[in-house]
Every structure is written in structure tokens, then in C-alpha cells.
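TASK: fixed-backbone design
INPUT:
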């Protein structure tokens, strides 16, 4: 297992966010579809002939968007199941990191999706007696260095 699993996990999480955003947008349309109006000539209820305003929503577009929403929902459910599997693999990879400090940072960054600033604050809270306090730049550099220095295929695995 290599660090690529962490990248896949992050990308999958972003894809799921995008799908949820699309579903919310379709839900908003389906809850309140835009109305269209037209004027036609005909006989009114009172028997006079003249212009009549007809208002409604475009039925084909409504059902097309409803079908798309259902397809997105099924896709979202599949992606969430896949994300759970990736989360397990990412956790296993993080557990293989030798330093506990880096494991904590990666859990906060990859699994929880926190920013570097939040990670630095949480790390400072966890290790209050540390002489050099964590900063967002410090955390960012440690994570970047880890990705640069970890071999893709350890000798034992090849």
C-alpha cells in the first residue's frame, strides 16, 4: 500500500461534495420549478372571447431533472460506499507511518479534512509542553516533506 491511497481518498471526498452540491441544486429546482407563462386567445369562463394567461411549469424538463437527480443519488450512494473502503485503506496506511506525531497530523488532515491552521491549533492543544509551537507553515512543511520522502514501493513490498 502506498501514499497514493491518501490522494485518492481526498479526491473521492471532493467528488462526493460535488455530487451533494448537484443534488441540492436539483432539489431546489424540483421543490420550486420555474414557472412559465404564455398568453393565448380563447373563451374565458365568463364567456367573453379574448386573451387568456396560461401559467405552469415545463413538464418534460421537470421529469428529466427528476431522473437526473435519482441517478445522482444512486451514484452518491455508490461513491460513499467506495469512500468507506478508501477510508479504511487510508487509516491502515496512516497506521504504518512510524512517527506518532505525523500519524496524528495525517488523521487530522486527510481523514478529518482540517486546514493546516486548525491542525496546528489541535497539535498545540495536544502537546502543550512542546518548546517550539506548531504553526500552519510547520504542519504544511511536515506533510509535504513526508510525501516527498516516502518511497512509492518499499523494498519489502516489491
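OUTPUT:
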Amino acid at each position: 500500500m502506498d501514499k497514493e491511497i491518501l490522494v485518492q481518498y481526498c479526491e473521492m471526498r471532493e467528488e462526493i461534495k460535488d455530487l451533494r452540491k448537484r443534488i441540492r441544486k436539483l432539489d431546489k429546482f424540483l421543490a420550486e420549478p420555474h414557472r412559465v407563462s404564455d398568453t393565448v386567445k380563447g373563451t374565458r369562463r365568463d364567456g367573453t372571447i379574448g386573451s387568456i394567461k396560461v401559467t405552469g411549469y415545463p413538464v418534460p424538463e421537470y421529469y428529466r431533472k427528476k431522473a437526473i437527480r435519482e441517478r445522482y443519488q444512486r451514484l452518491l450512494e455508490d461513491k460513499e460506499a467506495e469512500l468507506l473502503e478508501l477510508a479504511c485503506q487510508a487509516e491502515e496506511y496512516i497506521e504504518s507511518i512510524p512517527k506518532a506525531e505525523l500519524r496524528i497530523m495525517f488523521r487530522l488532515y486527510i481523514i478529518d479534512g482540517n486546514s493546516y491552521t486548525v491542525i496546528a491549533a489541535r497539535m498545540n492543544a495536544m502537546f502543550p509542553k512542546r518548546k517550539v509551537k506548531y504553526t500552519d507553515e510547520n504542519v504544511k512543511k511536515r506533510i509535504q516533506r513526508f510525501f516527498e520522502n516516502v518511497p512509492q514501493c518499499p523494498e519489502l513490498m516489491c
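COMMENT: The longest strand covers residues 36-43.
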